[in-house]
Amino acid sequence: MVNPDLASLKKRTLRHWQLYLIVLLPTIFLITFNYVPMLGIQLAFKEFSPVKGIWGSPWVGGKQFNMFFTSPFFWPVIRNTLLLSVYSLLIGTPAAIFLALAMNEVPSQRFKKVVQMITYAPYFISTVVLVGIINIVLSPSTGIYGQFAHLFGIEQAYDILGQPKAFPSLYVWSGVWQETGYGAVIYLASLANINPEMHEASKIDGASRLQRIINIDLPAIRPTIIVLLILSVGGLLSVGFEKVFLLQNMLNLDASEVISTYVYKIGLVNTNYSFAVAVGLFNSIVGFILIFTTNLLAKKYSDSSLF
User: Fold this and answer.
1) How confident is the model over 277-294, as pLDDT tens digits?
2) Which of 92, 135, 99 is CA-nearest to residue 232?
3) 241-252 burial, b for 16+ CB within 10 Å, e for fewer?
4) How high is the pLDDT of residue 88?
5) How many angstroms separate the CA atoms of 216 and 236, rounded?
6) DSSP state of 76
7) What Å distances lie between residue 130 and 126, 174, 175, CA to CA?
8) Which entry of 66, 69, 280, 302 is 20 to 30 Å from 26 by CA?
9) What is the pTM of this model?
10) Sequential DSSP letters for 170-188
11) How does residue 99 score in pLDDT terms, banded at 50, 70 and 90?
12) Dihedral angle over CA of 23, 29, 32, 34, nearest 10
C-alpha cells in the first residue's frame, strides 16, 4: 500500500519541479564547496604527507594544536589579532551608524546622493591599491609626508609605517575610510523603513532633532546593529590577511603579526599544512562560541537576535 504522505509529496514535487530545480543548483554548489571540503578537517589531527595524501597520512592526535598553544608566538599573535579586531569594531561600527544618521537628516536628496557616492566609493578600492596609497602618503623617504618633512628641514622623518604603536591605528582608520560608507548603506536601508508620520508627530510634540534620532531612528536600526554586531564578534579572530600582510615590515612586526599571517608563514610557506588546518579549526570553534554566546546575550537583553 502506497503511503499517502509520500504520494502527496511526489505529486507536489512533480507539480512544482521548476522550483525544485532552481533550488537544486545552489544546493549542489553549497554541498560541493562548503561541506565536502570539511572532510579536510581531519588534517588537523594528522601529519600530512603529500605522498600518502589526506586519507593515508598518519594520525598524530592533538600534536598540531599543542604546537600552536605552546609556541612563544601564541599569546602575541592572539593579542595583536584581538587588538585589531576590537579596535576596528569599536571605531568602525559607531562611524557607520553616525554617518547613516547624519545622511538621513539631510533634507537635500541631491546633496545626500553626492555624499553617499563619495563615502561609498573607497569600498571599491582594492586592498593592494589602498596600501599603495598609504605608502605614497606616509613613506618617510619618498612619500608626501616625507617630502613635506624635508621641506621644513627635517632630514630624518619619523617613520610612521615602521612604528609598532602606530600600526593598529593605521590599520583601523584606513579601514574606516574605506568601509564606513558601505556600512552606512545598510543602516540607511533600515532608516528608510521608518514611517514619516512618526517624525511629523514628534515635531508637533516639540521634539528636537536629537530627541527624534534617539527615540525614533536608533530604535528602528537597533535590530540591524545587533545582528551585525553578533556577526562581527564571531569574526574577532579572523583579521583580514591581505592588508595586514602588505602593511607588515620587520620594524612593526611586534604589532602586525596576527593569526592569519603567522599561519601563512608557519603553515603554508613551510608547507606544514596540518598546522594551518589546526589553527583554522581553532579559529572556527572560537568564532562559533563567540557568535553563540553573543546571540544568547542579545536574546536575553533585547528583542533581537541572529537565531
Assistant:
1) 899 889 889 988 988 999
2) 92
3) eebbbebbeeeb
4) 93
5) 31
6) H
7) 6, 8, 9
8) 280
9) 0.85
10) HHHHHHHHHHHHHHHHHHH
11) very high
12) -100
Q: 277 in helix, strand or coil?
A: helix
pLDDT tens figures, 31-53 = 999 888 888 889 899 998 888 88
Query: What Å distances lie between residue 297 and 156, 202, 218, 300, 304, CA to CA?
Result: 51, 32, 19, 5, 10
225 Cβ partners below 8 Å, 6+ apart? 93, 97, 187
Give the dihedral sign, CA 255/257/259/260. Answer: positive
Please say whether the beta carbons of 259 and 279 come within 8 A. yes
Q: Is 236 exposed, middle or buried (0-12, 13-18, 19+ CB in 10 A)?
A: buried
The label of the residue with cell 595586514 reads 244
Helices (H), 1-105: 4-15, 17-30, 53-56, 63-69, 74-104
- Between CA 237 and CA 286 the distance in angstroms is 8
Residue 258: pLDDT over 90: yes
Task: Report the interhelical angle of 218-234 vs 273-301 (nearest 10°).
Answer: 150
| DSSP-assigned letters across all residues of 158-172 | --STT-TTTHHHHHH
> What are the pLDDT digits (tens) for 178-230?
999 999 999 998 888 888 888 888 888 888 888 888 889 998 899 899 988 98
Q: From residue 99, give the alpha-carbon distance in Å to each of 63, 183, 184, 190, 230.
A: 48, 9, 6, 13, 21
What pLDDT is attached to residue 49? 86
- Return the half-sphere exposure (C-beta side, CA atoms, 13 A cut-off) of residue 259: 27
Model pLDDT, residue 40: 86
Task: Report the 10 Å Cβ neighbour count for 99.
Answer: 21
